[in-house]
Write a structure and sequence with these properties.
The chain is α/β, with parallel strands linked by helices. The chain has helices at about 20-35, 45-55, 70-75, 95-100, 115-135, 180-190, 195-205, 215-225; strands at about 15, 35-40, 60, 85-90, 105-110, 150-155, 155-160, 165, 195, 235-240, 245, 250-254. It folds into two domains: about 5-135, Response regulator (Rossmann fold, 3-Layer(aba) Sandwich), CATH 3.40.50.2300; about 150-254, Arc Repressor Mutant, subunit A (Orthogonal Bundle). It has a five-stranded parallel β-sheet, with helices on both faces. It has a four-stranded antiparallel β-sheet with strand order 8-7-6-12, covered by helices on one side. Helix 6 packs across helix 7 and helix 6 crosses helix 8. The longest helix is centred in the middle third of the chain and has 19 residues, at about 115-135. The relative contact order is 0.11. The model is unreliable at about 1-10, about 135-145 and about 205-215 (pLDDT under 50).
Length: about 250
């Protein structure tokens, strides 16, 4: 008797793009044993041919391939109406992960990767996409028109939610990317509460959350550095093992 497979895996089609035939075969075989349907491509040209002729629910895309690399292909890829993408790369530095995620990848894993971890990441990305398509709870932290206070303070810092400005304790403006600002806003509007990664994605990214699976960890790391640039500031964002993150400072209206 066949094992009962998770409902979300049934008929889910995954395209594996890698120039290494051995890796393509290994990943394909492993995923098929867990109920997925798979197809493979050895380069980005084959990938485009496959995409033009069929529908896929997710793409596992290698970064370093002869000819056009995966990041270049991702840059040209029309993700608005396309499937989510998990990048695989032998280069696994923070900078490479950030570049891949900010270019639209839903997740980024260093090679060699554990097939079971890849399976878990695939299921997480697909759950997020299905929830979004079903009109699940995706929202910004607080609507602009909600009447919430626009100027908040914490540990000598000051954040203007309408002007989108962050001032450090010396009253200097600290530059934040859009993602970092949205993440900090989520923290200051929910201080001293444990927020899971999924909650942070919903609060901080709103309708764009399906494009940022593991990006929260990268964004938190970058935000921490900016909140303690000289190394003298106390830790404001605490990691809560197996749960998520907590903004530990008291937040006041100004």
């Amino acid at each position: 008797m066949n094992a009962i497979l998770p409902v979300m895996d049934l008929a889910t089609q995954i395209l594996i793009v890698d120039d290494d035939a051995g890796i393509r075969g290994l990943v394909s075989s492993f995923l098929e044993k867990h109920g997925f349907k798979t197809d493979t491509a050895g380069n980005t040209e084959e990938m485009r041919a496959k995409l033009s002729g069929g529908k896929y629910d997710l793409i596992v895309l290698d970064v370093m391939m002869p000819g056009e690399d995966g990041l270049s292909a991702l840059r040209k890829f029309q993700k608005a109406d396309g499937p989510p993408v998990i990048m695989l790369s032998a280069v696994g530095t923070d900078i490479d992960r950030i570049v891949g995620l900010e270019m639209g990848a839903d997740d980024y894993m260093a090679k060699p990767c554990n097939p079971r971890e890849l399976l878990a990441r695939i299921r997480t990305v697909l759950r997020r996409r299905k929830r979004h398509e079903a009109g699940g709870p995706v929202r910004a932290a607080v609507p602009e028109s909600s009447g919430a206070p626009s100027l908040l303070g914490f540990s000598g810092w000051r954040i203007d939610l309408i002007g989108r400005l962050l001032h450090d304790p010396a009253d200097k403006i600290v530059s934040l990317s859009d993602g970092e600002f949205r993440l900090l806003r989520a923290f200051v509007e929910h201080p001293r509460r444990v927020l899971t990664r999924d909650q942070l994605l919903d609060y901080a990214r709103g309708s764009e959350s399906e494009h940022y699976d593991r990006a929260i960890d990268v964004q938190v790391s970058r935000l921490r550095r900016k909140l303690s640039d000289d190394g003298t500031q106390p830790e404001l964002i605490r990691t809560v093992r197996s749960e998520g993150y907590m903004f530990v400072a008291a937040v006041t209206r100004l």
